Amino acid sequence: MNEYIEIINNRLYTYLDIKYPDIISEAMRYSVFAGGKRVRPALALLSTKALGSDFNKTIPFACALEMIHAYSLIHDDLPAMDNDDYRRGKLTNHKVYGEAVAILAGDALLNTAYEIMTDYALESVDINSLKAMSKIAKASGIDGMIGGQVVDILSDGKIIEKEILTYIHENKTAALIKAAMASGAIMAGADDEIVRQFELSGYYLGMAFQIKDDILDVEGNASELGKSIGSDAKNHKNTYVSLYGMERAKKDYEEFSSESVQILLRLSLYNNDIINYAESLLNRKS
Ligand code: GRG
Description:
By secondary structure, the chain is mainly α. The protein has helices at residues 2-15, 22-32, 39-50, 59-77, 93-97, 99-124, 127-140, 145-155, 162-187, 192-219, 222-225, 231-234, 240-244, 246-265, 273-282; strands at 86-87, 90-91. Helix content is 73%, strand content 1%.
């Protein structure tokens, strides 16, 4: 995976080499290079590769996904939202740059993501670029990550129905992971049915990823995670573990993980890198 991560990081450096105003580019780079796992861009590149296509054309979309992810984390950490001082073991963006710059750095990352995608679509005159961008836009918007975040914020401190938790997880977490895999498949020129299968696999992977996140908050190792454990319970957060219990959380986690991999295995891909990567992600300790 290091090879893909290096490719993504190099391109992110290029895209974020903004000369002026330097405070905003510094704040943007601070969060983008704060040690994220690059899950969404890696899934996008590996999805293109799994279908036997050159992943270079997917790089702009992979970087856009990471910028959208980084913006969401900066805003999520703000005092008006989760009010977190640390992420990935480092001070959060607003703790370093102040709230105003942190808000603008998040906005700028979101905007830059669309600049990159539209520039690529204009240059390549490839309809698949527009299709991939549309998937990413929808997954990040009201019918995706933002919708999930709104319902999550409104549910804070309340005991919610399981259906509401599913809505939050599907939109806040799984939507962008689905879009990463779908956009990778689209850029490979896959037909609608194959794209649908990649999205479905991404859905189960995203749901399993979130359940794992909830499990790690109870059973994880603070130094491996780069954050203290037990924060969900302390903040009275509704999680998969709090609503279903640890035993069921682990069982559903296994089922969702297995479903995600099975869908990909049924597709007889050109190579299994994406399956190996999904499995390593699901076994993560941080
Ligand atoms: C502010 C619109 C808006 C949305 C925020 C992503 C998000 C929505 C909030 C972050 C909090 C959270 C726990 C979300 C669930 C998804 C998740 C597990 C995110 C962390 O993703 P990783 O593990 O992060 O890929 P790294 O640090 O590796 O980049």
